[in-house]
Automatic annotation (TrEMBL):
Domain D-isomer specific 2-hydroxyacid dehydrogenase NAD-binding: from-to ranges: 112-284
One Pfam family per UniProt: 2-Hacid_dh
Domain D-isomer specific 2-hydroxyacid dehydrogenase catalytic: residue ranges: 11-313
Protein name per Swiss-Prot or TrEMBL: 2-hydroxyacid dehydrogenase
Length: 315
């Protein structure tokens, strides 16, 4: 039941229970994903909504926003804003907050974990032991990670956190960045193709969205050495997934370790069928500690919005 003293907040997709409980205790919380007739719900209740909470991977569509005539803020549980039309929100003066800062380390950890899992056969090694193959044959050899050439696509907070970790593995680190970075100890390369050509491991840590869609296309993949691995902890949209599948099928590159996909949670059958891939269900930021902090950041930004204070994590 609506408590008219409490501001109305619309939750677009499920977030951790602890955050839902906090939102419920403070606001009139509507869950769009639980509505059996979402369009009818929006038409009837949309005008009440003052703030939206959504996930980075889900965002919020223009079609939903068009029903929210009094919305002033979108609090993103995540850092990606690629699933939100920022031209539209700017035009409507809708403010945006993200969970900046708190998930950087986890996503960087995941990138290193994926790189090691792929190159050192951790997933297939696990299956090998469970299936008692060890009793019958010797395990296969992996590829060394330490000392190799790492190319990072996107040198924001996450890219830099990956580089710092890779430095401890004595890796030779180069990167491409959309903005010039003058203060970094790693080598800047001007094109993604050139970076791909010279990398043993190519890690994607750039933002998603229209401007980076299929940045890693068939040409970039063709530039990668045959022994190279592609690692993606950013967004599936950055990679031409079909071109990647073809390259993996033809052993044009050694493998891919992916936390993100073009049409999550759908993963193409052709990718599932390959054994030179490591696949994760978009869990770069999915630790207890980080998800708790992300919830805290979402809550703090909503609180600031409703008390007319500047958003601590506003865009
Ligand atoms: C989260 C993300 O997995 O930060 C982002 O943009 O995609 C991820 O950290 C997501 O927002 C929560 O589901």
């Amino acid at each position: 039941m609506t408590d008219s003293n409490r501001p109305a907040v619309l939750l677009i997709a499920s977030v951790p229970d602890a955050l839902i409980q906090r939102l419920n205790a403070t606001y009139t919380l509507y869950k769009l994903y639980e509505q059996t007739e979402p369009l009818a719900f929006l038409a009837q209740t949309g005008h009440e909504i003052q703030a939206v909470v959504t996930r980075g991977d889900v965002g919020v569509s223009d079609a939903v926003l068009e029903n929210l005539s009094n919305v002033g803020m979108i609090a993103v549980f995540g850092v990606g804003t690629d699933a939100i039309n920022l031209d539209y929100t700017r035009q409507k003066n809708i403010r945006i907050s993200i969970t900046s800062g708190v998930l950087t380390n986890d996503v960087a950890d995941m990138a290193l974990g994926l790189m090691l899992s792929g190159a050192r056969n951790l997933c297939s090694g696990d299956r090998f032991v469970r299936e008692q193959q060890w009793l019958k044959q010797a395990p296969s050899l992996g590829v060394q990670v330490s000392g190799k050439k790492l190319g990072i696509v996107g040198m924001g907070n996450i890219g830099q956190a990956i580089a710092r970790r890779a430095a401890a593995f004595d890796m030779d680190i180069a990167y491409v960045s959309r903005t010039e970075k003058t203060d970094l100890p790693w080598r800047a390369v001007t094109s993604v193709n050139a970076l791909a050509e010279q990398s043993d491991f190519l890690v994607i840590a750039a933002s998603g969205g229209a401007s980076t869609r299929h940045l890693i296309d068939a040409n970039v993949i063709a530039a990668m050495p045959e022994h190279a691995w592609l690692i993606n902890v950013a967004r599936g949209s950055l990679v031409d997934e079909q071109a990647l599948i073809t390259a993996l099928q033809n052993k044009q590159i050694a493998g891919a370790a992916l936390d993100v996909f073009a049409e999550e949670p759908q993963v193409p059958e052709a990718l599932l069928a390959l054994d030179n891939v490591v696949l994760q269900p978009h869990v770069g930021s999915a630790t207890h500690e980080t998800r708790q902090r992300m919830g805290d950041v979402v809550f703090a930004n909503l609180d600031a919005f409703f008390h007319q204070r500047p958003l601590p994590n506003g865009l």
